[in-house]
Amino acid sequence: MSEVPEKDDDVVLAGEYALGLLSAAEAAAFEARLGAEPALRALYVQWAEDFAVLAEDIPEEAPPARVKAALDRRLFAEERPARRGLFERFGLAGLAAAALVVGLFFVVGLPGTGVQPPENPVYHADLRAEGEEDIILAAGYDATTQEMYVERRGMQDRPERDIEMWLIAGDNPPVSLGVLPENERIRLPMTPEQIEVLQGATLAISDEPEGGSPTGAPTGDILATGPLEDV
Amino acid sequence: MKDLDAIEHLIGRCALKDRNAFSDLYSATSAKLFGVILRVLNNRAEAEEVLQEVYVKIWRNADRYSTGGFSPMTWLITIARNAAIDMLRKRKGTGEQMPEGLAEAMPDSAPGPEAQAVQASERERLDGCFDELEADRAEAVRGAYLDGETYADLAARFDVPLNTMRTWLRRSLLKLRECLSR
Predict the structure, then answer these.
(1) What is the pairing mode between strands A161-168 and A202-209?
(2) Which residues in B lie closer than 8 A to residue A23 (C-beta atoms)?
(3) Pairing of strands A123-128, A135-142
């Protein structure tokens, strides 16, 4: 293949990579170039697009329901050792206090879904409707798990509508943190980009069609807002 | 199946960790991806395991989709196919694992061309170009893509030396690209 121009070599290489025909070492060398060479990357994407058309002939086959059930358990079952953490923090000297905490957990902790508030939230926000005193949603950022803990305080769902949470940093457009499920307490995973702008930002919730805003920006009523404050 | 814009929207919602969107995406695409995986593995138990892995990757890497330059179904199908081929090669114990960095693990800073929708005309174009190859060479490219066959598998299937198969396939790729760019 020594006579073919260099560009043709890359066309072939990208095709072999897309097909999975390269050895591990060749593939690693190819990947090392991908990040720095947009033209090479475009060649690979083009092959992936072209070959994916071949998959059109493959008949669809509904997977058994157990796959989705296992997937949900694996991705969304939240078991956090919050209680053990509290015991450790109080230690032996604080037995009386610990007993009190245990009591509290039995009262308010157990009936929930198992989602626990962060032990040491870095930022906290109380969300209120405009001009109102009552807090309808409280949030705390848990730096150890990189999640936003959100707790409903008497907020009502509207029928056939969803509530979506937004992060507003400075003059930037609101960034969706996701649709809030109906659970009383939930934890929303945060991306590094979102975490970076938390200081001084504001949380807001808006009323949206089911499944959340179709546009990526709030489309319905802003139901409540609250500034994120250092704890 | 929902249209491509709807699939793209759902992937975008998954990047924001919207679980409802994830369920909708699963409903809309899992039959296709399960079909792709079954085709490679031909074993339902393994295919179920791989399908689960694939949707874990989709959920975790959805935020990288928008910068990858892939159309939504290509991104999903590529993740599914690569995971299935990984399992196939693990099963066979061949050293050739699918490379780590395929679609789902792309560097997210790299710019890509605008994602293109796969349309009926794309299909005709591709079929037309495959038809320009000699029949067994077209079959070799299809075998590599759809069944995850390696150069060694293909050389054995077509009963030619390994280097001959490499040459066939590389020339076929060049011809295909030349035809597809016309």
Answers:
(1) antiparallel
(2) 96
(3) antiparallel
How large is the angle between the packed helices A95-104 and A82-90, nearest 10 degrees? Answer: 160
A7-to-A44, A133, B106, B177, B181 alpha-carbon distances in Å: 13, 67, 22, 12, 14
Q: Please name the residues in contact with A141: beta carbons below 8 A apart, sequence gap of 6 or more.
A: A118, A121, A122, A123, A124, A147, A148, A149, A190, A195, A198, A228
Cβ contact, residue pair A45, B112, below 8 Å: yes
Give the mutation candidate from A4, A49, A66, A162 for the B interface (greatest B CB count, under 10 A).
Answer: A49
Q: Is the CA virtual torsion B37, B40, B46, B49 positive or negative?
A: negative
What residues of chain B lie within 8 A of the CB of A60, using their CB?
1, 31-32, 34-35
Chain A residues within an 8 Å CB radius of B17:
177-178, 188-189
Distance from C-alpha of B139 to C-alpha of B133, rounded to nearest angstrom: 9
> Which chain B residue is nearest to residue A21, measuring alpha carbons?
B150
Interface test with A, best of B25, B33, B67, B81 (most A CBs within 10 A): B81
ipTM (interface predicted TM): 0.86
Burial class (CB in 10 A: 0-12, 13-18, 19+), A107: exposed
Distance, in angstroms, between B174 CA and closest chain A CA?
A: 6
Residue of B nearest to A4 (CA): B174
> Would you call B161 an interface residue with chain A, using a CB distance cutoff of 8 Å?
no
Per-residue model confidence as pLDDT tens for chain B (182 residues) = 568 889 999 999 999 889 999 999 999 999 999 999 999 999 999 999 999 999 999 999 998 887 778 999 999 999 999 999 999 988 877 555 555 444 444 433 333 333 344 456 788 899 999 999 999 999 999 999 999 999 999 999 999 999 999 999 999 999 999 999 98
